[in-house]
Give the backbone structure.
Amino acid sequence: MRIAFALLAAAALIALPFVTEAAGQPALLSLATRVLIYAIAAASLNFILGYGGMISFGHAAFFGVGAYTVGILFAHAGSEPLFGFIPGSKQMLITLPAALVISGLFAALIGALSLRTGGVQFIMITLAFAQMLFFFFVSLTPYGGEDGIIIRRTNDLFGLNMRDKTTLYFVILAIAALFFALLWRVVNSSFGAVLKGIRQNERRMAALGFAPYRYKLYAFVLAGMGAGLAGALMANFLRFASPDMMHWTKSGEFMIMVILGGVGSFFGPIFGAAAFLTLETFLAGWTEHWQLAMGAILLVVVLGTKGGIAGLLAKLWGARK
Amino acid sequence: MILIFEQLLNGLQYGVMLFLLAAGLTLIFGIMGVINLAHGSLFMVGAYAGTYVAGVTGSFWLGLPAALLAAAATGLLVEALVVRRLYARDHLDQVLATFALILMFNQLITLGFGRQPVFTPLPAAFAGSVELLPGLPYPTYRLLIIATGLLVALGLYLLINRTRIGMLVRAGATNRDMVRALGVDIRLLYTLVFGLGALLAGLAGYMTGPISAVQVGMGEQILLATFVVVVVGGVGSIKGAFVAGIVLGVVDTMLRAFLPGMLRQVMPPSDADAIGLGIASMGIYLLMALVLLIRPKGLFSVGTGG
């Protein structure tokens, strides 16, 4: 039954570009692409938040770092090297791994310092580091400062025509599928089990001989890399990177996606990202005061439900059985 | 020298403003364990309500009670409808529910007053400036803000340390479960503290009106700085909020005022301004990270219930 459902979802995702084209709704394809990208970012946040119990309020920082890696490498492609020795690149096979490494390094540094605190102090210190990066990129005038950096062309990959929206969608779909497959392995590994154990009772895990700090830091770095990947894809999709990508409200949006979808559920972030972006698009087309409705919906979901959309689906699933 | 003194006063003025907001926030957090992101919205509500009444009546002083009342009433409403359900929840739910409140308040204000900034008139008696030192005229209104902030600090000190309610507040910040176990009507205390916090936020909002624009989003700008103050000062500590508020207010103002100029000595002016402002904006966050790394609970942390 589960496998049938997964196959159905995969078939729907593959058929989607042809359906939107046939229906004459190209905007829907762009919405779907954004959902995929945000799903990666939200799932990486859910990994530390839902499984590891770390409430990071600065997750957008890594999203932005990933995007800027693509942007800055593009700006140096074919011209003088960055810092005099790092050549720029337009190849996605180079820029994506670079974004993963750079955002991973930032996550290692920020995580190593932030994880020394806990509770509300952890929330606020992750927010503080994200704000520092935000203001750093705002003042980075060689790369556009507050206005951000324009990437004239999407990165190349295997000679594909990346200007074609459908091609780009399939590339991002493939990367997202790979990401979720890897995440599935990690969540269901012994490492994932330790992480869940730390969320439930950190002291007990320490007594069992697991060093919580180290496991939490690994998870934080992995999550940062996931957000960096999403940011790099977003930079390719929008052909633009700006400090707004790491504004604290963006971190808030990631959290909203996680909670809409269902905290600590594997596929929740996908539903959450889809629900948030669809609501945003739909409400914004309906009224300019869409945030009022969005706020009300979010409030009802937070106060009134348990487990978000994934929880709701599980309930329906259970009721049918 | 005179310039430095003037900026010190500006920093002090910003610092007491931060203290007015942080005092309420730190009590709400320390006693109820609730992270209230919507505190900045109460600041905005106070500013708009006061400015509206001041505009209609033409008197700055009539706007003041309106600002206080509106902010306190909104605060009590928010407490009764939303925050009361969050006491037993984890921080994530609190952050998201109050984040939702920010979205709603911003849109409600936009619906009521539009997106254009509104200007609060200066009170006539405080429109001028006095010469504090030879060659240093300073606006009396800013002095009024400083005096108000210091008076509120004194009042809070007396309230917290000399009254029965204050004793309960102190006890609540140290160990709220124990206070509940001793049979204190903790609900009433919660409502009271929330109302007081909202009142102070409204006061800060209205007082800020004449020196900076009253606009949608004004709450969020100062909210993050306020949280930095609360965390640096130690959650639940009024003294910490006061010390951290003044220190961070002065540091932030000094960096903004002097860093671009200092950088201009070593780089082209346009770069110096952008980089200087960027680093100045990072300043308070850097300070908070440093403080938390040395003292993970903040400077003056109280109690166990945080």
